[in-house]
Design brief:
two-stranded antiparallel ribbon
Amino acid sequence: MTDIWLAKTPNGSLTPADAESINAIEKFGKGEIIKASIRKARNYENHKRFFAFLNTTFDMQECFDNLEHYRRWLVMKAGRYSTCVAPNGNVMFFADSISFDKMDEDDFQKLFSDCLDVFIKELGKGITEEELLRILEFT
């Protein structure tokens, strides 16, 4: 399986977005039917904003002393986790991955919004969303 990047042209068609994608498409013969799954690519700037949010809000809270634990907690509180039962019967929880390959942009935006809500509700000490966005310089 080959991943390719496509861009939507002004006339509404899709075209290869880079040289690797052109090469991948050229391997198929004219008229050959291929199956593709399309998802919206992640926005790197939004990804950086999420990590700026994590770093800033980590410094604003007192419950966690490890940034990675804080990130996992936020993701799980936002409802993004899986579980398994250990041999001793204990339920184990695992935060979902937020990697580019695991989550498209629409899903990531929803997660980001949910994490903002979790922080405000659980750790924000009365801060409003508008105040938090201003602190984060997102407005």
